[in-house]
Amino acid sequence: MNFKIYDLYSDLKPNGKEEHLVNHLNKLDVFDAGHNLRYLINNDVFYERGVLMGSLGQEYVASSNTIKNKQWVPIDGIEPFERTIFALDFSSNTLLIQNRNYSQKNLNTGIAYSRINTILTEACKTIFKTDFIPIVVNIPAGNEVFLKFFEHSRVLELKVSNLNTRHVLQGDKISKDKQFNSDLLNYWNTEDKNTNFLHIKASDDGELNNNPFALLASNSPNAKIDRISYYNENEGKSILVERNKFDKFEVPKVTKDEESITVYEATIDEINNRRGFLRAVKQVIKE
User: Fold this and answer.
1) Where are the beta strands (DSSP E) in 148-268?
2) In angstroms, what CA-CA distances link 80 with 48, 59, 139?
C-alpha cells in the first residue's frame, strides 16, 4: 500500500489535544453524498506515537448480480462501502492519503481527497483552532531538487539515467584544478558518449560530493537523476529519495483489503521509521 504525501501549510500545534480530535472524528454523523448515497469517517480513528490514523467509508452504486432462472439479475439490498485510509503525522506536519483505484463510477481519488480534506479542516478548526491547508507534494521537472543534496548533505549513492542523450556539459563545477576540469569535460563530452546510465555508491565512511563522475553525470544537461541516498544528520541515518516515488509513501506488506487495525499499525511503524524521508521531501520542495 502507498500513500500520497501532502504538506500542511500551517503547523497544527495540537498542544496535547490529539485525543480530542480522535473523539471528535469518531463521533461524527453520516454525510449525505447525494443520489441516496452516504459517506462517513469510520469510528475506529485512533492516535499513537505521534500519528492519527483513520479511514473514510464511501457508499457506492452496487453492481452485484446473480443468475436466476437462467437470467442475469441484480442482487437487491446491498449497501456496499469502499474504504480509504488516511494518516496525520503531527511530528512532520504531513497528511497521507491512500493511493488507490476505484472501480465504482461515483468514486475517484479527487472525491475521496475532497471529503477527507473538508472533514479534517472543520475538525482541526474546532479542536485546535487552526487552519488545515494540505499542499500536494510534487517533484519539479529537472534535477534541481536532487542537486540540493550535494550542497548540504553527505551523498552516499547516486543513480543517473538518460546519459546517452545528454547535452554538452560546460563550466568548472567538477574540479578546482582547471586542467583536470578541462580534461574531464573533454573526455565526458567526446569519448564517453555511449554511457546510458551511472549507478555509483560511496564506501561506508565516504561520500560522492566531490566524486568527479558523480558530478559529471548529475550536472549533465538532459540527464535524469533517478535516485539519491544521503546521510541525514538529524535522523542519524541514510535517507533514500527516488524520483518515481518522490510523492509516495510506501507501507510494504499490507494491501487495501487488510483489516484497518493491521494497516494502521503498519503505517504508524513505517512513519516512525521513515519520518526523516517525509521531512526531507517537504524541505527540498520548499527551498
Assistant:
1) 154-161, 198-201, 224-232, 237-242, 248-250
2) 29, 6, 36
C-alpha to C-alpha distance for 184 and 33, rounded to whole angstroms:
63
Residue in this structure with the C-alpha cell 443468475, named with its chain if needed? 67
Tens of pLDDT, residue by residue over 42-66, are 999 999 999 999 999 998 876 555 5
Pairing of strands 51-59, 37-41: antiparallel
Residue among 75, 94, 98 nearest 86 (CA): 98
Name the region of 15 (left: φ>0; alpha: ψ -120 to 50; beta: rest): left
Could you tell me if residue 112 is left (phi over 0), alpha (psi between -120 and 50 degrees) or otherwise beta? Answer: alpha
Alpha-carbon distance of 137 to 74, in angstroms, equals 42
Contact of 287 with 103, CB cutoff 8 Å: no
Closest CA to 267 of 88, 37, 137: 88
E strands along 99-244, which residues?
134-136, 154-161, 198-201, 224-232, 237-242
Residue 74 DSSP code: E
pTM summary value: 0.77
Helix axis angle, 260-273 to 275-286, nearest 10°: 60
SS3 54: strand
